[in-house]
Specification:
The chain is an alpha/beta fold and 240 residues long. It has a single domain, classed as Acetylglutamate kinase-like (Carbamate kinase). Helix content is 37%, strand content 19%. The chain is built from 8 helices and 11 strands. The chain has helices spanning 29-44, 61-66, 71-95, 117-125, 143-153, 187-192, 200-208, 223-228, and strands spanning 9-14, 48-53, 100-104, 113-114, 129-133, 158-163, 168-169, 181-182, 184-186, 213-217, 235-238. The chain is globular, with a radius of gyration of 17 Å. The protein starts with 8 loop residues before the first strand and ends with a strand.
């Protein structure tokens, strides 16, 4: 018998780079399709899902600022990149029969809804996936922080960070073969050891609201559903 889902409502955080596949820039539609299949499987388990996607596969505000651009202006450009990714994910999910809504923190009524918390909650209650775009709508905040913020606003049971590896390691396992994978960490462990999971503001926001963070490999087919059942390889970050 299949294990039921551990969580009722979750937020999935994806980096823009997670959508690139083997490309150096932009979107790899096979990769986007694979992630959409995993989201569909989790929705099929009765889990309410919302998503935050970064924009680093198209434009990174920090990189733009490092090249001499005004930081706030560069960050707004990065937010627009996340809207492009969100629209792509919506299109692919709906091709698979998953009703999806995009809500942007920067209003752009021609292409998507503005972010309205109660409307987003209602969409999820009706079984729709909600993709939150444009970060927090403010410069100087990352999409990691936006993910922690939205997860708390939506009263999610957990924030899932889909990465390139199956959890949090003591070092990059792709460069250090004997790096240790942690099964469980505390928020303070992550902050004190400067582990590259999410930025400090996101970790602190999750800690203040006791929001569990689960880090897993988004590129392993079926891993999202496995984590929802409490199975497979992942790292869980909690208070203690």
């Amino acid at each position: 018998m299949t294990q039921p889902a551990v969580y009722k409502r979750v937020l999935l955080k994806l980096s823009g780079e997670a959508l690139m596949g083997r490309r150096e820039y932009g979107l790899d539609m096979d990769t986007v399709g694979g992630i959409a299949n995993d989201i569909k499987a989790v929705v099929g388990m009765g889990v309410e899902v919302c998503v935050v996607i970064g924009g680093g596969n198209i434009f990174r505000g920090v990189s733009g600022a490092a090249s001499g651009m005004d930081r706030a202006q560069a960050d707004y450009m990065g937010m627009l990149a996340t809207v492009m990714n969100a629209l792509a994910m919506q299109s692919v999910l709906e091709q698979r029969g998953v009703p999806t809504r995009v809500q942007s923190a920067i209003p752009m009524a021609t292409v998507c809804e503005p972010y309205i918390r109660r409307r987003a909650e209602r969409h999820m209650e009706k079984g729709r996936v909600v993709v939150f775009a444009a970060g927090t709508g403010n410069p100087y905040f990352t999409t990691d922080t936006a993910a922690a913020l939205r997860a708390n606003e939506m009263n999610c049971d957990a924030l899932l960070k889909g990465t390139q590896v199956d959890g949090v390691y003591s070092a990059d396992p792709r460069k250090v073969p004997d790096a240790k994978r942690f099964q469980q960490l505390t928020y303070l462990n992550v902050l004190a050891n400067d582990l590259a999971v999410m930025d400090a503001a996101a970790i602190s926001l999750a800690r203040e609201n006791r929001l569990p963070i689960i880090v897993f490999n988004i590129h392993a087919p079926g891993a999202f559903a496995q984590v929802m059942r409490g199975e497979g390889a992942f790292t869980k970050i909690i208070e203690n």
